[in-house]
């Protein structure tokens, strides 16, 4: 079994700097929403090729089940069939279906009834039921050419486009009209599959055979609408309506054309006519509901929504849009998520769900859904613009730029993309390019206060202060009372270094708006810029009078308090802010950092957990929480959390440092090496990061790379204390005792009050076989840092090594009397009990650890080892649990050795040990265990090879004599 001493993870944090942020404006989202209705939601035909296969649940299905209970009334099947034909002629498809079913109840072999029932289901949009009846009709004797076209339509309704194209081709026995209809269905299937060119060819052939094929004409209209050619689209629809004026699909297509052309009243009239004439009404009711939402006729939309079955997915989408319009974003999210079951790959749904999450502050989920939109519809400018805006707010220009470039490449005059690109260029320090774009936009919309104020900021960044001020003042005049333009004027002047002018502007703003919180905040920032700290302090206090708990004012006042050394006052500002703004992420994070700074980890933990839940993509809270969990000895949870953070921010140095530490502390040394290699590649001149990599190499058994990287770190910074301490270890490893003693003495001289220096003195004394001096050095270290639990552990182990074994337990036992929840010391005391063969006490100690932390991997591992002989079932359970939580080398080693005692588990034990060696190839003990497992599995030849290589390596490990004995037995 491999055991690991788990010392605490140390870190320190300073107070946060004063920051200001501009949040996402709902007016911006509203603009995007309106655009999305026009260009994404309305053109649903362009999205259809991207939808997943669904089987629509029809309202009529419920009615049918209710009506069918009546049963036949004594008529013959032909009489029922005649009644069904009459109902069909009247357009009463629901009644016709009932009569067709009555006919089939009377005579199940009536093939004509099944054919007509299948066709009725097609009219109702129920492709699955239609397919079933049509196939039965064919089996009952209906000719292949009669069911071929209806079957193709039934499969099309089920979105089985590939089957239509693969199995439904022209046959000579079809009439020209039937051939045209089949070609039209194939053409529409090609369109849905995204093959527009081939779709056009099939539809052209269909019209050559039958120029009056409404299906083909509407297919042509959908192609042209997908291409944005509304004139051609309208022409195809007009031709179809001349042939069939009451065709509901043609009327629906007309509605889409009118909607795309901005004729919303005409669009609603077309949808209403489609509803009146259609057998399958829910589809067209939903279309009218969407249009009414777009027209902000919420009352009318709700009336339509009420007519839809709860099983109809479009109902949930429409409900979500209503909630979205009302800014009821939680309810909108729920409705959109319900709609996902039926419209999972429908781009507008994914778009609105992304917007909803964005407005709720869930940026990670918003990012996921908006990227889904771009996967479905790569040309979606709206999704690209919103994603780019999110990236700009996070400062990730590299991700934002290609998104905006792709939009502008397709649409050079896209106003939203131009505006965002101007903002990006401002952030890139290219104000001249931003000015050019903003002036283009302003020429199109000269009365836009927002554009004028943004132009003012760009001019300010270019140093044109007077012209910039004039533009910003024009914006203020265009929208008097709008805080954002006033704020831009003050902030722009501050950023341009015109601090005195900024102060004048802020004072004028406060004079005009004496109770405006943004005005007073800008005045406070202007006071700070002009080094008028007292006035800034008073102004921030004024903000709190106007807006109790205001996060910005509270944070700045806390910083003032910290500068005075008044930590208690700083805490009170943050705590009062959270009373008014519960869960505010930045205030919560600032308060957590202050708690960490003052050693109040237990108060910092819930705050960091909350921030992490709110912002899982934010690296800073993830790194701080990971460090804190490591310091508390919960390396398993720290690893799980930081792995998730690394998926979101894979290059963040702070995240990589915590990830590497967590991997090392859970025994995944190979993973730690890989992580730290990524870190040093980013920071090649960072001595501390090279030091971390050196540590990982050492723990992975790679002494060569350890020495090389540590020496590199020492070259980069020979005064770095931790690196100097590690160099002492390297010198001792090389048995360069004089150099080691020289460096230790220098450290004691330079850092006499540093406990770690005395630790090095102790370790060197131990290496020089002076255990008494080692004990004294550890005692001095503990006196300097009496609150360090790791020194308590080291002092106890030194007593053990000095032969004072009874006294060795006392430091840790005394510590636990005062700190009963200290998992680190309890773990190491349990390990010491294990070394002393005090098995019952070790079992109790490890069990106590699991009571408070059931996922403590090392406790599970060691307890499994202790129980392997007395309670083998529990031992296996504990070892399996540890393996499930963290399949690291030590854990796999323990599980394998326990499994070897179970019959029939030899093969798995060998696999586990082989995997463990892949993670820790330099671990000699695991090599020995693999040899033992191979012997037990019957592979003595390979066991001999493993033992020979191991013993030739001159590695020192427990059980080396046993390994030699085993090799002798195998060789003899």
Textual characterization of the structure:
- It is a single chain.
- The protein is mainly alpha-helical and 972 residues long.
- Among the domains are: 58-158, Tetratricopeptide repeat domain (Serine Threonine Protein Phosphatase 5, Tetratricopeptide repeat), CATH 1.25.40.10; 730-808, Tetratricopeptide repeat domain (Serine Threonine Protein Phosphatase 5, Tetratricopeptide repeat, Alpha Horseshoe); 854-972, Alpha Horseshoe (Serine Threonine Protein Phosphatase 5, Tetratricopeptide repeat).
- Helix 26 (449-461) packs parallel to helix 28 (483-495).
- The longest helix is centred in the first third of the chain and has 17 residues, at 176-192.
- The chain is globular and about 110 Å long.
- The two termini are 28 Å apart.
